[in-house]
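Protein in question passed on here:
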Amino acid sequence: MSLFKNSMLALVAGGLAAGLLAFAEPSFQEADAAVSNPTKLQSVSAFAKIKNKNERAVALFTEAGKVIQSPRCMNCHPATERPTQTDRMRPHIPLVVRGEGGVGAAGGLACATCHHENNFDAANVPGNPKWALAPIEMAWQGKTLGQICTQIKDKERNGGKDMAALVKHMAEDELVGWGWHPGGNRTPAPGTQKQFGELIKAWADAGAACPKG
C-alpha cells in the first residue's frame, strides 16, 4: 500500500475517533453526577459486635454492596451486550457491544477508539489500560445483591477465581480501582478501594455467606 494511501487512512481513522468523542461527550456531560460521593463505607470493625458469623458475613457483604451496586461497577457489568453509562445507567452512546474479550465486536466499534489509558477530562471520556466490559457470565444488572454474591463466589462465573484471588481482585485490580477515580463529572464509588477490599476479605474470613433473595 502506498505511503499516500496509508496517510489518508490514518487521517480518516483519526477523524472518526475525534467525531465519536464529540458525539459521546454530551451523553457523559448530561449525567447528574458529582465529584464526590456522600455515601460512606463502614469499617470492618463496625461489624465486630455481630457474633454470629453468617450474620456478620451477610452484613459485611451488604456494606460492600454499596460499591458493587454503584453505577461505576454496574455500567460495566450489563445484562445485555451493550454497556450503560453515566450515573443514570443509560445505554452507551455511541452504540458499542461487548465482543470478544469485552473490548468491542470484531469489525465494529472498539472500546479503545474512545477509551484510552487515562481519563480524558477535556471530552469527559473515562479511560484505563484495562478498559473492557465484564463477560456476560459476570452480568450484575437486574440481579439482587444476594444473586450477585452467589455469582461472585461461583468459579464457573467469576473467571475461575478462588476466594483468595477474588479478594485480591477486589482490593487491588486497577480497573476495579478506577471506580474511585472516574474523572469528569462521574460520582466515584462509595468509600475507597482499600475499605472495599477490607470488607470483602472480612466477608470471606467470616464464611462468605450471602444475603437472601
Summary: Residues 1-34 have pLDDT under 50 and may be disordered. The chain has one domain: 3-205. The chain has seven helices and two strands. Strands lie at 84-85, 90-91.
